[in-house]
Write a structure and sequence with these properties.
The chain is α/β, with parallel strands linked by helices. A nine-stranded mixed beta sheet has the order 3-4-2-1-5-6-7-8-9, with helices on both faces. α7 links the parallel β7 and β8.
Length: 209
């Protein structure tokens, strides 16, 4: 019943985000996805002369270069080491839960709590943008699949808005009909947007709030 109500409340915007997505700030932490959207996001950020610090899922923490790290997504100590190594951040783009995920569904909650606890002081910095991108985290259309584990990501972000009022939290849900280039553009455009909307979904070439 709640899922049907959620679908009924969603509406289609009469426009997609503008393509002008020059972001403010210089340093962005980018958690990679298995599908490769991160490559397009990184490419677009580099075009804007941003410093992109890439984070990939692995069994344990490792600093490969100053801008390339690996960590265990469920390990709070790994996140702490990452935070202490990266310095000041202006944005975090988390793609690890998107489409073909880096971790299994039943590990999402542990990963989210580890991330929040380790980065809690970072989340208190005014102006930081946190964009978490997933699929199947909300039900927008009647034929949408809803993953109960990924839905916890949606709930997690709602809690972040309450717990960290200075943090600019953005939740993006995307289905797999969107190609990498377009997906990257949507993500960065939403991060640039001055809209008060914090939760947005994309289905094909349509945007729902």
């Amino acid at each position: 019943r709640l899922l049907r109500a959620r679908a009924a409340r969603a509406r289609v915007e009469d426009h997609l985000p503008p393509n002008n997505y020059e972001l403010s700030g210089e340093r962005f932490l980018l958690f990679t996805d298995e599908g490769g959207i991160w490559k397009q996001v990184e490419k677009e950020l580099i075009k804007q002369h941003k410093t992109v610090i890439k984070v990939s899922a692995a069994k344990q923490y490792s600093k490969l270069t100053d801008t390339d790290y690996e960590l265990n997504l469920k390990n709070q100590d790994d996140y702490r080491q990452l935070k202490n190594s990266t310095g000041k951040l202006h944005g975090i783009i988390h793609l690890s839960y998107l489409w073909k995920s880096n971790i299994s569904s039943d590990e999402y909650i542990d990963a989210q709590f580890a991330f929040q606890r380790a980065f809690s002081d970072v989340f208190s910095n005014k102006g930081l943008v946190l964009a978490i991108v997933a699929d199947k985290s909300v039900k927008v259309l009647e034929n949408d699949d809803l993953d109960p584990y990924k839905h916890t990501i949606h709930t997690f972000q709602k809690n972040l808005i309450v717990d960290y009022p200075l943090l600019n939290v953005l939740s993006i849900d995307m289905d797999q009909t969107i190609d990498e280039e377009r997906a990257a553009g949507y993500i960065l455009s939403e991060m640039k947007s001055d809209s008060v909307v914090k939760f947005v979904s994309f289905r094909g070439h349509k945007r729902f709030i």
